[in-house]
Design goal:
- The protein has eight helices and eleven strands.
- It is α+β, with helices and mostly antiparallel strands.
- The protein has three domains: about 90 residues, no CATH class; about 160 residues, Alpha-Beta Plaits (2-Layer Sandwich); about 70 residues, Double Stranded RNA Binding Domain.
- Strand 7 and strand 8 form a beta hairpin.
- The two termini are about 20 Å apart.
- The relative contact order is 0.10.
- About 5% of the residues have low confidence.
């Protein structure tokens, strides 16, 4: 008989820890400790419930197997059928628990800074960047998230040369993190008279938005310059020095914000973007130090790689990391079917991490 995927001892430890947290919560009065325990309680609850269900199913299986040896033929047949059902139930519970017990990315619950930039392809690339940004706006709306545009650089032909936005909500990064990379589009531009298909690209960056406590920025590490904001063609937008350029001296990261008429608001937006970029740099540095960990295409965050192709003539979207093709481009670009890609990428990521854990075991 093979050993269970999750030992009984581990299940018991999970259930005991959950009970201990509940007991502590009923006794303490310190606000910060209550918040900390409440968070752990919320994370442990579904895992503890699944563990209890698995413990119960395993106990029932032992009883059912004993009943299979009964002298009563009908009872033995019923027990054998119950063994089959319990085996399937246990396999499902173990599979679900394995995923629940995978190491969590602490940024998964974070809001994000989304950056979409036109790549190769001139005006068509800017139009495609606009299509991608609207896709994410619609997807955010369907998930009940709030989108705040931070800065835009519009193209004269339409779309964006660059657009930055903050997307706020619970679990935004967990769903959006697989969107980072180069997105390629194949379609006939409106200006194309010969009906030829052109290929253009846009890059997407999804940066987890850190809490104030996640990353500290010393005032002495910043150089803040203010200047007069300007619009397309150098036209003056306002007559005050409201635009803000913040340079993080230790890293050389520069953030510019000029969309607001208020210098104070531009500075606040710039600091939000700066925090996200520095946090992302720190995450990438930590990932590099853990080079032995998975280096697969999924979730690598390498924005230099082509991750997805949107082929309009064939109404096809192909994600190259998992070789998934969906013939529903219109629904994906409207944000309605983007969840199918997100779910597939999430499952592939979980499978890869489970395989890595099995190899290490």
């Amino acid at each position: 008989m093979s050993a269970p995927l999750i030992p009984d001892e581990k299940l018991a430890a999970i259930v005991q820890r959950f009970a201990a947290v509940e007991d502590q919560m009923s006794k303490i009065s310190d606000a910060s400790e209550i918040v900390k325990l409440s968070k752990e309680h919320a994370e442990l609850k579904p895992i503890a419930e699944a563990s209890l269900a698995l413990q119960s199913a395993r106990a029932e299986l032992i009883d059912a197997k004993e009943m299979c040896a009964a002298d009563d033929k009908d009872m033995a047949e019923m027990a054998a059928e119950e063994v089959k059902e319990l085996d399937a139930q246990i396999a499902d519970l173990e599979s679900r628990l394995q995923i629940m017990l995978l190491p969590k990315d602490k940024a998964d619950n974070s809001s994000v800074i989304l950056e979409v930039r036109a790549g190769t392809g001139g005006d068509e690339a800017a139009l495609f960047a606009g299509d991608l940004f609207r896709m994410y706006q619609r997807y955010a709306s369907l998930n009940g998230w709030k989108v705040e545009i931070l800065t835009t650089s519009e193209s004269e032909a339409g779309g964006y040369k660059e657009v930055q936005a903050s997307i706020s909500g619970t679990g935004v990064f967990a769903k959006m993190k697989f969107e980072s990379g180069v997105h390629r589009v194949q379609r006939v531009p409106e200006t194309e008279t010969q009906g030829r298909v052109h290929t253009s690209a846009a890059t997407v960056a999804v940066l987890p938005e850190p809490e104030e406590v996640d990353i500290e920025i010393a005032d002495s590490d910043l150089r803040v310059d203010v200047f007069r904001a300007s619009g397309p063609g150098g036209q003056s937008v306002n007559t005050t020095d409201s635009a803000v350029r913040i340079t993080h001296l230790p890293t050389g990261v520069i953030v510019i914000q000029q969309d607001e008429k208020s210098q104070h608001k531009n500075r606040a937006k710039a600091m939000k973007v700066l925090r996200a970029r520095l946090y992302d740099m720190e995450r990438e540095r930590a990932d590099a130090e853990r080079a032995a960990e998975r280096r697969g295409q999924i979730g690598s965050g390498d924005r230099s790689e082509r991750i997805r192709t949107y082929n309009y003539p064939q109404s096809r979207v192909t994600d190259h990391r998992i070789n998934l093709t969906l013939y529903k481009l219109d629904k994906i670009i409207e944000g309605e079917a983007l969840e199918e890609l997100v779910t597939a990428l999430t499952h592939a990521d979980q499978a890869e991490r489970l395989a890595a854990m099995a190899d290490e075991a």
